[in-house]
Amino acid sequence: MRCRRCINVNEFELISKLTKSLPTNAFVVESAGDDCAVLDSGQPGRYLLFKTDAVVQGIHFDADADPVRVGHKALARCLSDIAAMAGRPIAALVTIALPKEFDAEYVRKIYDGMSVVAREYGVAIVGGETTTNPERLLISISLLGDVASEKCVRRSGAKAGDVLFVTGELGGSIAEKHLHFQPRIREAHWLAENFDIHAMIDLSDGLAGDLRHILNASKVGAEIRSPSIPISRAAKLQARTKANGKSALIAALSDGEDFELLFTLASKDAVAVLDGWKKNFPDTRLTCIGRINAAPGLKIRDEHGVRELNIHGYAHFS
Amino acid sequence: MRCRRCINVNEFELISKLTKSLPTNAFVVESAGDDCAVLDSGQPGRYLLFKTDAVVQGIHFDADADPVRVGHKALARCLSDIAAMAGRPIAALVTIALPKEFDAEYVRKIYDGMSVVAREYGVAIVGGETTTNPERLLISISLLGDVASEKCVRRSGAKAGDVLFVTGELGGSIAEKHLHFQPRIREAHWLAENFDIHAMIDLSDGLAGDLRHILNASKVGAEIRSPSIPISRAAKLQARTKANGKSALIAALSDGEDFELLFTLASKDAVAVLDGWKKNFPDTRLTCIGRINAAPGLKIRDEHGVRELNIHGYAHFS
Fold first, then answer.
1. Is B51 part of the contact surface with chain A (CB cutoff 8 Å)?
2. Which of A15, A95, A108 sits opposite B140 (nearest CB)?
3. Which residue has the higher pLDDT, A17 or B28?
4. B255 touches chain A (CB under 8 A)
5. For residues A87 and A79, what is the distance between their CA atoms, to the nearest angstrom?
6. Most buried among A204, B63, B285, B297, using CB within 10 Å?
C-alpha cells in the first residue's frame, strides 16, 4: 500500500531533482523538504502551513475498504503532517476523482469519514470538487494550517546529544491502523507548548526512513536501541504468522503508515517529557529509542553490539 | 473535455448536496460556492484564498497533448479562479499521479510548463508530490492566494441596474486556447483597484452557465444582447466547418474553458472602465454584453426580441 514502491525508484529520484529548482518567492519559509510547506503571509508571529496528499484505490486502500475509513484516512494523513510541525489545521479542500461506475452512497460515506475527523480536529472542509478518473477512485486533499512561528517544529533542528522519542507502537499498520489512526495533533501541541522540541516528523515511510529525513535535514547521525523500539501487536502477529516475511522488529523499523510522531529534544528534558506525557496521554506510549550523534549515519544497538542500520540492507543484518 | 459531462448529472447534484453540510469553523468567510474558498486567518485587512483543481488525461487533455501545455493548463486554471476574486496568488502544491509506464522527460516538461506560468504570476511551487494512478496521468493543484478584504470580489454582489462585461472572446476553446490561455490576474487587479466591481467569476463552464452562478448567488436576473457577445475566431471556424454541430453564438454561450472574466459594475462606471481598459490592455477585448435585472431569470435579446435563455434548450431556440 506504499505508492512509491509501485514505480521505479530512479524515476522518482529524477522527479525529486526536478522539483528542487521550482519557482519561489518572498512568502516561502520552507518549500518541499519538510512535512508541510511553511509560508509567511505577513501575519506577525505566525506561519501558514500548506500540505497536499492523495490516496488512490488499489494503492492506498483496497476497493472493498469501508469508504468511511477511506475518507478518514485521506484527511487524517494530511492532519498528521500538520501535527509533525506542531501546527493547527484550519481548512481542507477535497478533490474526489470518481470512476465511471460509482455509487453516490459510497461518496457520501467518504465525506462522512472526512467530516468526523474534520470536526474532531476543528478543520473546515471548504470545498468539495468532483472530477472523473475512469478506472479508479482517487482522493486528493489540500490542507491549510497555521502555527506560532516560534513553535513551528522543523525536521532540521536535531542536535548532537538530543534524545529521540517516538509515540505509539510501530509496524503492521497495513492490517488495520492505516485506515483509522488518529493524527497526533493534540500530542504535538502539548509537546511544543511545554518543551523545546528540536526536530519532529510524522512516520509515514517507516521509522528508519523517516529518521533519516531528520538526520539529513539536521546534518547529524543517530543511534537507536533495538530493544527499545515499541513494536505493535499487529507487527508481532504478522511476524508469528509469517504474513509478510519480516521479523516484528524489521516491520517496526520499515513498515509505512504508522502516523506516529518521531521527535528529538535535549536530554535534560527527557524525564520531564515522559512524566508529563503519562499524565496527559495515559493511553498512548511514549518511548525513548535512542540519541542523536554528531557523526553522520544511522546505527542500531542490540545485544551483539552496534551496527550500521541500512533500511535496504537491514533485513540481511538481523 | 468537460469532466462533469462524463458522469450522470444527477449523481453530481447528489454530491453537491452532500457538500453543503460539511464541517466549518470561525476562519471561514466563504466556503464552497465561489471561485475560491475565502478564509480569515486573523491578518487585519486581508483574506486568504484557497483553491484546488485537477486535470485528468483523456478528460481535460489528450494523451498526445504537449506536456508543457498540460502543466501550464493545470496551474493556470487555479490562477484563473484567484483572478476571479481579484486575488494575488502566493503558493501552489502539485500532486502528479503517474501511470505505470511513464516517461520522466514528460514529467519534466509538465513542471516546465507550470514553472513558466508560476514565474509569470509570481507564484511559488512549494511542493511536488508524486503518486501512482496506473491507467492515466492526473494532476491536482492546490493554490493559496490572498486579497485585501475590501477588494475581494464575490459572485454574490451583482445589483439590479449593473452592466455586465466580459473580457476576451468566447467559444471554441477546445481547439487550442484551453491549453495556453493566460489567467486574467493583472486585469482583475486593475479592475478591483480602479472600480467598484460588484460581482465577478471566471468562465470555466461557459458564459450562460457561469452567468447563472452570479445570478443565483446575487439573487438577480440578467438580459444579454446576442449581437454583443464576443465570439472567438475558433468558434466561428468550428461553426463554418460544422466541427461540433453548434452555431458560433451557441458555442460562445455554452463552450467551457474560456477562462475569461465576467463581471458587473454600476452603469455609471461603464464608460470609464472601457476607456481605462483600452489604455491598459489594448490587445484584449472588453465587451459590455448586457445588464442585471431585479427580476430573476436569464434572457437574451436579438433582432427578433427578448426570450428566456436556457442553456439546455438554447440550441433549439436559435
1. yes
2. A95
3. B28
4. no
5. 9
6. A204
Name the closest residue on chain A to residue B55, using Cα atoms: A131
ipTM value: 0.91
* Fold (CATH) for B3-151: 60s Ribosomal Protein L30; Chain: A; (3.30.1330)
Tens of pLDDT, residues B160-209: 999 999 999 999 998 889 999 999 999 999 999 999 999 999 999 899 99
pLDDT digits (tens, 9 = 90+) for A59-100: 999 999 999 999 999 999 999 999 999 999 999 999 999 998
Q: Please report where in the chains the cell 435579446 appears, as a residue.
A: B301
Which member of A31, A95, A115 has the closest CB to residue B126? Answer: A31
Q: Which CATH number fits domain B155-317: 1.10.3720.10, 3.90.650.10, 3.10.129.10, 3.20.20.140?
A: 3.90.650.10
Inter-residue contact B107 to A13 (CB < 8 Å): no
pTM score, whole prediction? 0.92
Q: Cβ–Cβ of B22/A59 closer than 8 Å?
A: no
B312–chain A nearest CA distance, Å: 21
Residues counted in chain A: 318
Exposed, middle or buried: residue B65 (CB in 10 Å: 0-12, 13-18, 19+)? Answer: middle
Judge whether A106 is closer than 8 Å to chain B, CB to CB: no
Question: CA-to-CA distance for B222 and B309, rounded, in angstroms?
Answer: 10
